[in-house]
Amino acid sequence: MKFSKNIILVILAGFFFFYSYHAFLILPIRVLSLGGTEFDIGLVMSMAGISTLLLTPISGILGDKYNKKYLLAFGALVLSATNLCFMLFDSIYISYLVLRFFQGCAFSFFFVSAGTLIAEKTDMRNQTQALGFFGIFAILNHALAPTISVHIINIFSYDYFFIMASIAAVFSLMITLFIDSEKSTDSKSTADEGFFNILKNSRLKLICLIMFLVGGSFLTCLNFTAVFTKSLGVYPITIFFISYTSIALIMRIFFGWLPDKYGQVTFCKPALLVYGISISILAFSTSFLNIIIAGSLFGLSHALVYPSIYTLALKVVNEANKSKAFSICSVSFTSGGMIFSVIYGLIAETFSFRVMFLSCSIIVTLGFYYFIKLLEKELKNDS
Predict the structure, then answer these.
(1) Percentage of the chain with pLDDT > 90?
(2) For residue 365, how many C-alpha atoms fall within 13 Å in the half-sphere facing its CB?
(3) Which residues contact 263 (CB under 8 A, 6 or more apart)?
(4) What are the pLDDT digits (tens) for 258-293?
(5) Which of 26, 232, 298, 337 is 20 to 30 A distant from 139 in Cα terms?
(6) How many CB atoms neighbour CB 97 within 10 A?
(7) Cα(137)–Cα(141) distance, rounded to whole angstroms?
(8) What class has domain 5-179+195-382?
(9) 287, 291, 266: which is closest to 279 by C-alpha?
(10) The dihedral of CA 26, 309, 216, 283: what is its sign?
């Protein structure tokens, strides 16, 4: 499929934004170096989730009313300024918590606006693939950003790392200025249900519950895998991100069209099972090869699940409420990551990383199976 100039610009802006944001996946190592614990890691990393949880509903409402281009630019500006502020502090509590909070604010404005803008400009039959391509650059930076950041820190210092992360967000900001985006006028022809009324949609609620579990497992793995890998003496410590990214990119580029053709729910069922299996393999990993296998299966699953669930959320609402539906789905993902990061961080500190990952695997596998069956039944009843 061919993409318009505006979608290409949104995707490019997303690349630099996600680099700037995901570079901080190595922040747990910084937290430990400052005397923090596994619980502190979960707390610091979850702060971005708290702000995203609070701001994403507002982002969705604003996205349905105003020009999304300016919301993209605002998100990039906030992220750039926040990343620079990390140079001024070396305290885990208060300073790092506040700065992570503002990073989450930036993410909520950028991500919701970018996702709904792409969905609006893409034919319904190709939405999963379009959102998948947008997500490619987020996935790429799950490996690229922390890997480059580790080298910058080792060669120079943390200050240089913070500066580079800030500059990347500036590039994103500059690209958003060239996007031609006007406030949508389609919403006048369809009913605006209001943010809280849209939550009465039973299909959307089930989709959000699934996304809640996806967020809990995904962000837990991202937040703790680097520290876990380092504790095993396996290098590079970003090998999970690299293997996950490589497979996810292949799946998105060459097979991203499959859910659009054969149905999102059809692909979600086996992919979510693989999700749980990959985390269980990670729990029992002892070597370089184990982590590569876990990361590869994780990438295989996430590449199909993530855009498919967002597409399902957009399908069950009308045109006037797409930004709200997207934002609610994003809130579910983020809140899952926020809540589970703290819980699993406490489990890791009390027991071990292996117990943490195994608990995560069991919970998400059982939860996925239960909610996906309910959703499948709900969609069949509607048809």
Answers:
(1) 33
(2) 14
(3) none
(4) 777 777 777 777 888 898 999 999 999 999 999 999
(5) 232
(6) 17
(7) 6
(8) mainly alpha
(9) 291
(10) negative
What is the structure's pLDDT at 238? 82
Q: Provide the strand spans (E) within 126-206.
A: none
Alpha-carbon distance of 111 to 18, in angstroms, equals 9
Structure tokens at 225: 């895998």
Six-digit token string for 128: 């999963």
* Vertex 80: Cα angle to 77 and 84 (nearest 5): 140
Are the beta carbons of 252 and 136 closer than 8 angstroms? yes
Secondary structure (H, E, C), 253-291: HHHCCHHHHHCHHHHHHHHHHHHHHHHHHHHCCCCHHHH
Q: Letter for the amino acid at 341?
A: S
81 and 94 in contact (C-beta within 8 Å)? no
pTM, full prediction: 0.73
Closest CA to 42 of 55, 27, 23, 20: 27
210's tokens: 């699934």
Domain coordinates of the chain in residue numbers? Answer: 5-179+195-382
| Token pair in block for residue 205 | 């609620």
Q: What is the DSSP letter of 236?
A: S
Nearest-CA neighbor of 17 among 134, 183, 181? 134
Q: Which residues, 6+ apart, have CB-to-CB distance to 204 below 8 Å? A: 198, 313, 316, 317, 325, 328
Decide: 339 and 215 in contact? Cβ < 8 Å. no
d(CA 314, CA 329): 9
Closest C-alpha among 238, 214, 74 to residue 144: 238
